[in-house]
Amino acid sequence: MLMILPPLRERRAIDRLLSHFFHDHKITSFRQAIARLCTFYRLKRPRFEWYAYIDWGKTAGRTYEDGTIHLMHPEYWKRGRKYNSERQWVNMVYHEMGHYIYWVDAERKANAFAQNMVRGLNPQRR
To answer: What are the average pLDDT values for consecutive 10-residue runs of the chain, which has 126 residues?
Structure first.
């Protein structure tokens, strides 16, 4: 499956910002990382809600069809979890953003897909 991703330099910057947020809990780092992702994909920023635990501790993040993302805050992620590393938290954020990127604005994506599918099929028709 072919995926369009931000350039490597941009991905490194995003990853660095998420790591800073994991350690410092400064929300500006997190917002900048998400803003960079959303700018690349031309999407509006999702609404985030922070939790100590989700679904009785079984889930670390959840994305909803309305664009809301529930995440476990790194402060709670570090405490009392068997798997509590920075890398696992950052990967969880990427996972939830992947849901958001592929769910949001489905109508526009469907229209673009339909246009691209028929482009160049019949040169007589415009």
So the answer is: 83 96 95 96 93 73 88 82 80 90 72 74 64
Element (H, E) at 50: strand 47-51
| Domain assignments of the chain as residue spans, ordered by start | 10-105
Strand partners of residue 63: 69
90-120: b (≥16 Cβ within 10 Å) or e: bebbeebbebbbeebbeeeeeeeeeeeeeee
The CA dihedral of 84, 85, 87, 92, to the nearest 10 degrees, is: 10
Tokens 């592929």 found at? 102
Contacts 24+ apart (CB under 8 A), 47-53: 51/76, 52/76
- This prediction's pTM: 0.80
**DSSP state letters, 56-99:** TTTBSEEE-TTSEEEEE-HHHHTSS-SS--HHHHHHHHHHHHHH
Q: Tell me whether residue 46 is exposed, middle or buried, using C-beta atoms within 10 angstroms of its C-beta: 0 to 12, 13 to 18, 19 or more.
A: buried
